[in-house]
Design brief:
alpha/beta; 7-stranded mixed beta sheet; 6 helices; 36% helix; globular
């Protein structure tokens, strides 16, 4: 693997006010180091406010409004947690459209903590295996997913989908795994498109 396995790849990071700051910023930094171009997508205008520990955190500039975004413009998707953020995104009709398009296309998706719940909103969990914050387990299982409950298993990979539990100490492992899953997802998509072109 090269030092920049995601060189030139566009990555959507979907957040609203109250997102878990460390889950977003660590992913953003790692993606930049891997050569990717992460973009913050949000329903918020101009700035989006993170949540850090037990209080509001920093403001971050948004790159695109959620209503203006097409999944086709991006290669990969990151869904950080944060109950407030997830609740707001779950109520936005564009969330279902965007996440559904990513998953239908077999693109890499990484969700952590409460962010995993947004996969249920997109109604793309039937037959998938996931993990996440225990508080969302019932919602996710009701959407058709199989929940990974093994002690010590902090994340799960199901094809191009990575899901992870929420404690902050899990974040470094999540980031490292995300980069690997995303590199594999890029290769999978490349082969898929090559096969389609050959069959045309």
């Amino acid at each position: 693997m090269t030092d920049q396995p995601l060189a030139g790849k566009a990555v959507a990071i979907l957040i609203a006010n109250g997102f878990e700051e460390v889950e977003m910023t660590e992913a953003q930094r790692a993606l930049l180091r891997a050569g990717a171009a992460p973009k913050i997508i949000s329903p918020e205008q101009g700035l989006v406010n993170g949540w850090h520990g037990t209080s509001w955190g920093h403001y971050f500039p948004t790159d695109k409004q959620i209503g203006e975004v097409l999944a086709a413009d991006f290669d990969l998707l990151v869904l950080p947690g944060g109950e407030r953020s997830v609740t707001k995104l779950a109520a936005n009709p564009h969330t279902r459209r965007i996440i559904g398009s990513f998953m239908d296309a077999g693109k890499g998706v990484a969700a952590i903590n409460h962010g995993v719940q947004l996969l249920a909103v997109a109604q793309r969990l039937k037959g998938r295996t996931v993990t996440g914050n225990e508080a969302i387990r019932e919602t996710v299982e009701a959407a058709g997913a199989t929940w990974v409950a093994e002690e010590g298993q902090n994340m799960n990979i199901d094809r191009q989908l990575l899901t992870a539990r929420g404690p902050e100490e899990v974040v470094p492992e999540f980031i490292e795994t995300m980069l690997r899953v995303f590199a594999d997802a890029i290769e999978y998509r490349r082969q898929l498109l090559a096969e389609k072109a050959a069959a045309a």
